UniProtKB/TrEMBL annotation:
Binds 1 zinc ion per subunit. The zinc ion is important for the structural integrity of the protein. SUPFAM superfamilies: Mss4-like. GO terms for cellular component: cytoplasm. Keywords: Metal-binding, Oxidoreductase, Zinc. The gene is msrB. It comes from Methanosalsum zhilinae (strain DSM 4017 / NBRC 107636 / OCM 62 / WeN5) (Methanohalophilus zhilinae). One of its GO terms (molecular function) is peptide-methionine (R)-S-oxide reductase activity. HAMAP family: MsrB (MF_01400). Its cofactor is Zn(2+). Pfam families: SelR (PF01641). Belongs to the MsrB Met sulfoxide reductase family. This is Peptide methionine sulfoxide reductase MsrB. Its EC number is 1.8.4.12.
Amino acid sequence: MQEKSEEEWKKVLTPDQYDVLRRKKTEPPFSGEYVDHKEKGIYTCSACGQELFDSESKFDSGTGWPSFNAPLSEKKVSLEEDTSYMMRRTEVVCSRCKSHLGHVFDDGPPPTGKRYCINSLSLDFKKK
C-alpha cells in the first residue's frame, strides 16, 4: 500500500477519525459506535480497510471502548511502546497503514489474557 501524506489523510478521514487514527488521540469512553455492538462480522481499519478483528473475539470490558482478546492475525496489527502522558502502554497500530487503533493490556479474558482496547473511530464493520 502506498503511504499517504498527512494532507491526503485529512481529505479521506473525518476530522474525528484523523485525530484518532493519525494524531493518536482517544475518543471519549462510551461514545463510540461499536462499544455495545453485537452483530457477527469482521471489524476493519477505517483508514485502509484491512481486516483486524473478528466479532467472536469481542467482549464487554466495561471500559467504554470496543475490546477484543485477539486480532484476526498477529500480522494484522503492530505493537509499539507508548510513553505519552507519563504512562507506559503498548499502542496497537494497523500493520498496513500505520494508523493508531488503540492500546493492548494484559487484563483480558482467557484464553489470551489480552484486552485490545480499540477506538470505534478506528474501525468499520463488515457483517457476516
